[in-house]
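User: Structure tokens for this complex, please. No commentary.
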Amino acid sequence: MEGYALKYKEELLENVIPFWLKYSKDTEYGGYFTCLERDGKVFDTDKFMWLQGREVWQFATLYDKVENNPEWLDMAIHGAEFMKKYGRDKEGNWYFSLNQQGRPLVQPYNIFSDCFAAMAFGALYKVHQKDEYADITVKTFENILKRRDNPKGKYNKAYPGTRDLKNFALPMILCNLSLELEHLIDKSIVDNLIEETIHEVMDVFYHEETGLILENVNTNGSFNDSFEGRVLNPGHAIEAMWFVMDLAKRLDDSKLIQTATTRAYKMMDHGWDREHGGILYFMDIKNKPPQQLEWDQKLWWVHLETLVCLAKIYQLTEDGEALRRFKIVHDYTWEHFRDPAYGEWFGYLNRQGNVSLPLKGGKWKGCFHVPRGLLQVWQTLDKVTADKVI
Amino acid sequence: MEGYALKYKEELLENVIPFWLKYSKDTEYGGYFTCLERDGKVFDTDKFMWLQGREVWQFATLYDKVENNPEWLDMAIHGAEFMKKYGRDKEGNWYFSLNQQGRPLVQPYNIFSDCFAAMAFGALYKVHQKDEYADITVKTFENILKRRDNPKGKYNKAYPGTRDLKNFALPMILCNLSLELEHLIDKSIVDNLIEETIHEVMDVFYHEETGLILENVNTNGSFNDSFEGRVLNPGHAIEAMWFVMDLAKRLDDSKLIQTATTRAYKMMDHGWDREHGGILYFMDIKNKPPQQLEWDQKLWWVHLETLVCLAKIYQLTEDGEALRRFKIVHDYTWEHFRDPAYGEWFGYLNRQGNVSLPLKGGKWKGCFHVPRGLLQVWQTLDKVTADKVI
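Assistant:
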């Protein structure tokens, strides 16, 4: 696996991170541009809080986990200062987006803006211990817990009582967030949250009859036969399985690692497009037509999360099956998403695997899934190699 | 054109309307099923108010404009009674969706639910003069006018003052609605509305520099260089041009007909996919990557509205160019969207023109654009033929 580890490392440090350092910094108003064309040219200046937070997290994490490169720390602080200054309303909720100057564009209707802000300031505090960064992290985290039962608040359009559903994304992110923030949160809160989110992700959203993981279930955890209840998002579920594996490793729970592995394989098999290769974006558990018109597209993050998941399974279990699968997904992903000409990767392919949108970043794609995935795979496989040498 | 007129008539009466009569009636709880698989099988029972209203309108309009077939009137009343009983909140706002039994699922955040409800009850009243149908029409219409400056109300997520935009869809629909409801609304209101909506559609959303029609502009009518401000929806603009032509015909304004024709051609040329044929769904006026992942798909309604528009141009101007264009769009549309095996038409094709979702109806596709388009083209071309015989 040494060859792979090196390949992911070089791609991260020579092809991907330089792209964001060069093109995404807004030196005039602060924060980052994320709407970047294939060659890095800025095509829109709006600033989406998900992506601002994720890029802060990414550069702080590189500084923490790769090397103390001052350019990376500067870049993280550059984004965090913009977020700190303009990102929140008076109650500390994070706006969804700002214009280039930092004026709010879209209200704080989306709790994931808060999740990525907490991740950002938590990671930055690890490498740059300013009290206000810790304070923002903790306050944002407390606010997330307070809002979690009705995350959309007054923007929730569901009529109460007819079909009350809960969504997979929040427990899944909390799974990851609890580890990301444990240096700043009371141990008892972290421990409870870990137990609770593992239960949600592994029991509540699990559809026993098929072995698949659902995106939405009734509040009592049962299956809901509706568009929302039937929807599957293979990439999302696979990503959640590596979050769970990180927790399982910490808890030294080999049974949980095994269960997460089985489910990740199941989602990969179910989501794999036998006709054109790659993993589909959305599916319906009863094979009915999904509502999402983009259901058959191939998205970068789905494939990167799958590679991370398989690398972790291989590290934790040394299962040859993980390696076999890793190679197949690796070949598809590198062949279709990577852009050797301008750096960074494409994000959106059609079903056939051709680039549908040539952008490198936009409203939802920023400096996150590609570099995080490359870093995770590199350091995970490096560990396998190191273990083996020992 | 006689051959085309007959073709559209036969398709409507023998292939499309029988499909909806057979499969969409919910005889148990009332209203219509619109989520229908290729062969008509119901795959979901949710009831979306847009599509309930549109189907009522469609059957009432067939009864009015084609023949007094009692089965059509029964079908229209069947849907209207369900809507009347379950469709509104206490303030008379129309919910976005209900479950099969009629319990509200999604709050009345969408003013187009109200627009299609008004159209439905207005058309039904024409052929079945129950006072309560007139009353519902008028009250709903008044409510639309009251809500039009802030159509999303409390569900509006835009932060006020940073980038206040207005959207093309509402003036466009009001253009059509003002004619649909003129038998029930004061003449002075209708006349003012016609003048105002023609101004909005033809002046405010028109982008002079390119000759194209925008989906969103600043509240003062100027161009806004953002994702929302740059977006083009060729099918939407082309549909609006035939609404305007209906008004222009009524006003006997040949200059307006000519302007609408020029703009419709421009949008068709701009939206036409030179690589694979068909008209693209979304574009960016500056050729930047659009936000909509489904931007390059080919949608049924876009093509039907284009055929209606071209038929009307031909009727009003006898321009050979309209006929030439009609034949090209006709050939593409009938070859790719029509389903000779099971009746009705496919709705969603990928860029290459292959069926991406094999459904005949769903959350957004119901008994509306295909039958309305076929009816409009048939009766428009029939009129050309009749005029020529005279």
